[in-house]
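Assemble and predict.
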Amino acid sequence: MPSATLIAQSVLSGIFVGALYAVLGLGLTLSWGILRQINLAYFALTFLGAYLCYQLAAGGMDPLATLLVIVPAFFGVGMAIQWVFARFRVSPFNSLLVTFGLTVIVESVIQWIWTADFRRLESSYGDVRFRLAGLYFPLPELLTLALAVALSLALWAVLRFTDLGRGLRAAAEDGSIASAFGVNQRVNALVLSGVCAALSGVAGVCLALSYTLAPAQIYGWIGVVFAAVMLGGVGRPLGPLIAGIVIGVSEALTMALTAPSWAPLVSFALLIVVLLLRPGRE
Amino acid sequence: MSIIRSAIAAAALSSALILAVGTADAATSGTPVRVGSTLALTGPLASTALVHQIVGEIYVDQLNRGNGLLGRPVEWIVKDDQSKPELARTLYEQLITVDKVDLLMGPYATGAILSAMGVAQRYNKLLIHHTFGIPSLAKYDAQFPTWSLGADPATTFPNTVFDALAATTKPPKTIAIVTSKFPSVNFMSLGAREVAKKRGLQEVLFLEWEFGNREFGPIAARIKDANPDLLWVGAIGLEGNQLLDAAKKIDYAPKFHFYMYPAPGPMVQAPEAKNALAATIFEEHPPFLNNPGAAEFVKAFRERATKAALPYTGVETQAAASFSAWQVLEAAVNATRSLDDKVLAEWLRKNRVDTIQGKLRFDGPSNYGDDLMRVKQVQNGRWVTVWPKEAAAPGATLVGP
């Protein structure tokens, strides 16, 4: 019989990994739901962000301070991607193909610069953990959780309460009507695309703090993050957080109570169940 | 999706896809002897395949600085199989029928080697390979392994590990076996399970996870709960580090801990891997360095690996098995003065070859010889062989918890 501590610690692990799914999925859900672009390149940008964080930290910079460099740079990259998409009128389906190509190119660039060998960010954050009621709370995972919650809530608030958010939602509903009401779709889309790419940069820093990196790992995250985005509802900033934590905790409990090899089935089983029960859900 | 990926990867990496290594030297003349192989230059296995690429380049350069093969220069044609066994099959077919190579060299990893073996068998080509993990699957009589696992490593190697531990002052009484389902480590772990039972070790936990698993927190928590004297981890690549990372986060340090095939660099560099045990066929210390050519190879590898920006530049199992494969190929060609696959295979079945990991023979089941796998341990930030005694680093013994 597993101990209560084992189960509680496993739930905690699930929450932490779910928070990482959320940070990874935020850009994808907003881009998919609002810009109608299924942008796989965010996964590659996440890893590029992680490698940049590793490189800058190896040069003596605090890993969290690397966000000051990575976030603005990636915001620019996101805007550039959107400019190209708008210029060539890339359709939602083609966006999937084009961004997949971008992902492969970015992977190759990463491998060219950092080789295919493993890279590990060594930082003082990795050694810090707190103990409360017999449970352990590692600092990198706590930071990821805090960032996931803060960013999800902030984006939810922006979309709900600001003119920019209302404009973006209106454009996603009906672009022509939104334009008729004075919504500048082009600028809004550039800003949102920049934000989505910047979120990938944040996810990269979170990833670098907790995981050893290798270029080919990019593809290992796509399935489960897609599941979190779809379960949470495309275009909803709180969706990946809630669904990510549900998936993470379910996987962790599966590992703690049954055979760990069954865990990968959980996210997709949950997705299938939701799609069966609510087939109209995007 | 994989087709698109392949196409784009082909365009983006065209310069990396086909590497022709080797230049003619004054000592060699005539048309080059063409040796063809694939390696996983991209994809999930790329980090290790890079080691084999460097070793191949070193060896071919070395050959060309000398007499090449039969006095002819050697050209190594290596294609990127993208870590996909099905692509390796196509590329080996291409190497034989389009590139018309004289000889084949095996790719990296069991799946790709199995694919290459099928092609080699169809064309009656000799296949020397360096990283095949499941000897019982090697059915082709002209395939020759240079990773000296022995014919039944799932029995012989766990016995080596348990012998090593039994010789310590406080031998383990309980064992937890946790393992990836990656085939070449899973079958070793299942073997360890049987051997442990026969030797009276009490199994307190057995777990399997899918290869590619990212979250090791709950697995570490279950191991901590079971509190075994010995933790056997059927890990390949980074999995060992991931498990140790997760254990560290819950303040758990295993007592004795063994990892099947860990990524050598990340593990030796991780503070939490102190005293971790693993399998090896070669380490950078005597008696291995006393084998002819070993010291020079270690130096050359370090230089090239540093130049290639590899974070870990030491020679261990992967590089040594790879180097041995080239040594075996050269020995067979020189001894027979022939490039005929049948003649070479015939010679290899009857003769032993000196390599940097020791003398290899190919006259056992599936052309396997002795199990030359040893046990190494992380001590003071470096890998040292600790068992058996005759292979141990000078003065090194297995350190307990």
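The mean pLDDT of chain B is 92.
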